[in-house]
Design brief:
With 1011 residues, this protein is of the alpha/beta class. It folds into five domains: 305 residues, Peroxisomal Thiolase, Chain A, domain 1; 82 residues, Alpha-Beta Plaits (2-Layer Sandwich); 253 residues, Malonyl-Coenzyme A Acyl Carrier Protein, domain 2, CATH 3.40.366; 63 residues, Alpha-Beta Plaits, CATH 3.30.70; 94 residues, Orthogonal Bundle (Non-ribosomal Peptide Synthetase Peptidyl Carrier Protein, Chain A). 38% of the residues lie in helices and 14% in strands. Helix 30 links the parallel strand 27 and strand 28. The protein is elongated and about 115 Å long.
Length: 1011
């Protein structure tokens, strides 16, 4: 039978705000119980030690901190809707998100999938308070309450298409939810399932009920199986686990906490009372779970019991366990987390499941709180059971555990879990075809806002500082998990300590954050620029070659292609730091190898160019990557070019002139043996030709106060002195051939984009030797076509400096220059930073290609840190709270962004007081619960302000009230004009043109805002 893997966990319980804190609480036998918070109810008013009618016998319980805090902006929920939502819905949303992240999955990647959501829930006190306040029942109050909405809310916001349902079987609700989720996975109904449980106490109703039923412990603490047991103490909490089939988890490389071997659910039927436990039914559900799991009771090492700490409940549970475990060898360990938390009611099953999963994962079962004085009436030893007074270390190998959860109405559930198989607990590195390994890991992180990014950078920095895992696996996991939001952060770092420091610096220093973070408007459009001759130097890219397996692979590939034509290894020459690399015969093939290896590395990393350009000899690598000819042909041609040029007699030279083409042309024309060889910019021209003639031209230029500089070259490239080599080169070029680029190629021979029917054939490459390099023209036209990023592929940045001196592009926006190699000291870190820059600019790289094979192992990163600034509680419970307690506040509204993105409608500040604008603000503010000062024209009604169809209906009604002059809008009129608030205002002005001139004519009057 297929087993079910628990791959992700998140939870919040009393005294434990996260999974790690929960495990810590268990291991130290911590107590999460304390006084009833003043925010809930006035415990003194409803307290009676004697348990009088309408009162509770305790002022204690297990309560979570800050149940009113909710990051509504993250989920695009308006403040008004957030204030109406049951806090259980809010807690589940955040918990479900973090459970998916914990599995090493980006929650957005589950969107549209058949992922199921199963929520165990027992209490609905928020609805009892709000839906009986009839004058204030709104559409938001309806969708914000109800059991079904706890599950449906998760499915809606995560866009999950699988089954979505809430389960109420009282105290066993969340383990029954796990049972249903597991069965859905086994039947193929879904591939992932979120199983959750939640409980928040808003009123003292259940505390009073437990007291009146004789079930409540006066100190508010459950003492499971203890001689001190005297009843139930209430508890709160929320937990979520992400489940999938074990075979799928292994195939997908997801780390597994533990495995569910089998589950069973049954009912007491008619027993000695609707709320009384039934030993025989419990005994049967245990047998069914063991049978479905295919295990013998004696094989179970420990069981997390229901363990409420009531005399009857503990007795019935022990008798049911004894039926299976009595006399079967070593006593089975028994405990209950209710001793630490209280009875978390609808969340009790998930609290126990998470405890068992963590125990199997850590190979340790925590000691049971209150185990020191076990209840002698239970006769645990005779029953084949024992309470753990100290943590139990589990032996190596597979370990089985049980988990019980029994509902007050008689629905019982039991699950059998097993430790994860070694390969599932510690997945092998993910395999990937082809070369890989950037050399330096790049950690990425995304967030919906800059503030959220800062908050999460600090969270990750603190978590990483406490870990000893290498930076590589952590970074690889971040690409899978921390993705999908608008603000992108990426930084290379060689080790975890460096990484933690960089994250902290970025979170606390705006300048550092601006360097490593960006909010791209869309996908980037890349241009690759390939550097030409003159940029070479001994040992160029040697550091990158040593550190990056990816670059090394492609450099070796180029070297192998060149070897038959050069007669020696270009790679060995370069890495040896040989000065011979400056000789033309060596420099040209070596530069080709560097350009090719950088370009292919970037392509392998997912950085595909929208256009390419090569400066003179750099055009060979550009053409090869653009598909003009294969690597072997390009290698033959570039090797021949360098060798033929090297054989030419010396005596020529080149002269850089700080002037434009037109200014220099007249001087060059006076010397027939001098040609214009290169035009790099409006003030950058290079002359080439006979050395004596160059000296004469240089003198005349100096006389006219034009600066010149001789270049250290062996030959007069792109001049008539190249003519002797043209025919032998053309012959080889004809044999090699050359087609039309498959990627747009901006030719420095033509000074423009090559046409679709313009091949780079033998004639092209022969002209390429002799005619001038028109870099300024080609680059200018390339930049006019609007690339967002220009990536220079060469041993040092030369073209980036030249390009910055060109005139502004037609768009007025220059591309961002990205430099994978910055010079002789460059290594893998510069290439890693180049990829990080492209990611920040909107590229989605192939991170598997960036990671070393051994780094592709998932790690559990710190979960997303939600904002806690916004608080949503209820004024309707004010009568329950102590008089001294501060008045609960309504929703703290979400701050609006201060700057509009490019291309959106922006209203002038002077227009914001005109009546149509004011009326639109008022209406949107009323419907969404926003302060009008927070609203701005560029905010999107759906994506930023959380509007939905119900809110649009209400918006139409509000606008009719505020702007009668619009002539009776329909919802159909509004829907196409609701992209942004600015669009809405423009439409309303069209409908009500008089509103611009006069407030009286607009019919707008300010109205008091209602909560």
């Amino acid at each position: 039978m297929e087993r079910i893997a628990i791959v992700g966990i998140d939870c919040r319980f009393p005294g434990a705000p996260g999974t790690g804190a929960y495990w810590d609480l268990l291991m130290r036998s911590g107590d999460g119980v304390g006084p009833v918070p003043a925010q809930r109810w006035n415990a003194a008013e409803f307290h009676s030690p004697a348990g009088e009618a309408g009162h509770s016998n305790t002022t204690q319980g297990g309560f979570i901190d800050e149940p009113d805090a909710f990051d509504n902006e993250f989920f695009t929920v308006s403040p008004r809707e957030a204030a109406a939502m049951d806090p259980q819905q809010r807690l589940l949303l955040q918990c479900a998100w973090r459970a998916v992240e914990d599995a090493g999955l980006a929650p957005q990647r589950l969107a549209g999938t058949a992922t199921g959501v199963y929520v165990g829930i027992m209490g609905n006190e928020w609805a009892q308070v709000h839906l009986t306040d009839y004058p204030h029942v709104t559409a938001q109050a309806g969708s914000g309450n109800g059991y079904c909405m706890t599950a449906n809310r998760i499915s809606y916001h995560l866009d999950l298409k699988g089954p979505s349902l809430a389960v109420d079987t009282a105290c066993s609700s969340s383990l029954v939810a796990v049972h249903l989720a597991a069965n859905a996975l086994l039947s193929g109904e879904c591939d992932y399932a979120l199983a959750c449980g939640v409980n928040v106490a808003v009123t003292p109703a259940l505390s009073i009920f437990y007291t009146q039923a004789g079930l409540s412990a006066p100190d508010g603490r459950c003492k499971p199986f203890s001689a001190e047991a005297d009843g139930i103490g209430r508890g709160e909490g929320v937990g979520a686990v992400l489940l999938c089939r074990l075979s799928d988890a292994v195939e997908r490389g997801l780390p597994v906490y533990a495995v569910i071997r089998g589950t069973a659910v049954n009912q007491d039927g008619r027993s000695n009372g609707l709320t009384a436990p039934n030993r025989w039914a419990q005994q049967d559900v245990l047998a069914a779970a063991y049978r479905r799991a295919g295990v013998a009771p004696a094989d179970v090492a420990f069981t997390e019991g229901h363990g409420t700490g009531t005399a009857l409940g503990d007795m019935m549970e022990v008798k049911a366990l004894a039926h299976h475990h009595k006399g079967r060898g070593k006593p089975m360990a028994l405990g209950s987390v209710k001793g630490n938390l209280g009875h978390t009611e609808g969340a009790a099953g998930i609290a126990g499941l998470i405890k068992v999963a963590l125990s199997l994962h850590h190979r340790t079962v925590p000691a049971s709180r209150f185990a020191a004085k076990e209840n002698p009436a239970l006769r645990l030893k005779e029953a084949g059971l024992r309470l753990l007074k100290a943590p139990l270390r589990l032996p190596a190998g597979p370990t089985l555990a049980g988990l019980s959860s029994f509902g007050m109405g008689g629905t019982n559930a039991h699950a059998v879990l097993e430790s994860a198989p070694p390969r599932a607990a510690r997945p092998e590195p993910a395999a990937r075809p082809g070369p890989a390994g950037l050399g330096v890991p790049v950690l990425t992180l995304t967030a919906p806002t800059a503030d959220a990014l800062r908050r999460n950078l600090l969270t990750q920095a603190d978590a990483l500082a406490a870990r000893r895992v290498p930076a590589g696996p952590l970074s690889w996991t971040s690409h899978r998990t921390k993705t999908g939001h608008r603000y992108r952060f990426a930084v290379p770092a060689r080790d975890t300590g460096e990484l933690a420091a960089l994250l902290r610096d970025a979170a606390t220093d705006d300048a550092v954050l601006a360097r490593f973070a960006q909010a791209p408007a869309g996908r980037p459009r890349l241009a690759f620029l390939f550097t030409g001759q003159g940029s070479q130097y001994p040992a160029m890219t040697a550091g990158l070659y040593r550190e990056s397996a990816l670059y090394r692979h492609f450099f070796d590939e180029a070297d192998a292609a060149l070897l038959p034509h050069t007669g020696h290894s270009v790679r060995d020459l370069v890495l040896a730091g040989d000065e011979a690399v400056n000789r033309t015969a060596e420099a040209q093939p070596a530069l080709f190898a560097v350009g090719y290896a950088l370009g292919r590395s970037l392509l392998e990393l997912g950085a595909a160019p929208a256009a390419v350009l090569g400066h003179s000899v750099g055009e060979y690598a550009a053409a090869c990557l653009a598909g003009v000819f294969p690597l072997e042909a390009a290698a033959r041609l570039i090797a021949a070019r360098g060798a033929l040029m090297q054989r030419l007699p010396e005596g020529g030279g080149m002269l850089a002139v700080l002037a434009g083409h037109d200014e220099v042309a007249g001087f060059a024309a006076e010397e027939p043996e001098v040609s214009i060889a290169v035009v790099n910019g409006p003030k950058a021209t290079v002359l080439s030709g006979d050395s004596g003639a160059l000296m004469r031209v240089g003198k005349r230029l100096t006389d006219h106060r034009i600066r010149t500089r001789p270049l250290n070259v062996s030959h007069a490239f792109h001049s008539a002195l190249m003519d002797p080599m043209l025919e032998p080169f053309a012959e080889i070029a004809r044999e090699v051939g050359g087609g039309v680029p498959r990627i747009p190629l901006y030719s420095t021979l033509r000074g423009r984009l090559l046409a679709d029917d313009e091949p780079m054939d033998a004639a092209y490459w022969t002209d390429h030797v002799r005619r001038p390099v028109l870099f300024a023209d080609a680059a200018g036209r390339l930049f006019d076509d609007g690339p967002t990023h220009a990536v220079e592929a060469g041993p040092r940045p030369v073209l980036a400096a030249l390009a910055r001196k060109l005139g502004p592009p037609v768009s007025g926006t220059r591309p961002a220059f990205v430099l994978p190699v910055r010079g002789p000291e460059s290594g893998a870190e510069d290439l890693a930073e180049a990829l990080a820059a492209l990611y920040r600019g909107g590229l989605d790289p192939d991170w598997d290609a960036a990671a070393a094979p051994g780094d592709r192992v998932p790690q559990r990163l710190a979960p997303y840190a939600f904002a806690t600034a916004h608080r949503y509680w209820t004024r309707n419970t004010a009568h329950l709270t102590a008089p001294a307690a501060p008045a609960p506040q309504a929703a703290a509204p979400a701050p609006a962004p201060t700057a509009a993105p490019p291309g959106v409608l922006v209203l002038e500040r002077a227009e914001e007081s005109e009546p149509v604008w004011a009326a639109a603000l008022e209406a949107v503010g009323q419907v969404g619960g926003y302060e009008t000062g927070e609203l701005a024209p560029h905010l999107r009604l759906y994506e930023d302000l959380g509007f939905d169809s119900v809110m649009v209906m209400e918006l139409k009604t509000r606008l009719d009230e505020l702007l009668p002059g619009t002539g009776g809008l329909t919802v159909q009129d509004l829907l196409p004009r609701l992209a942004t608030l600015g669009d809405l205002v423009a439409f309303l002005r069209e409908c009500n043109p008089q509103g611009r001139q006069t407030a009286a004519g607009s019919g707008w009057t300010p109205k008091e805002r209602t909560a």
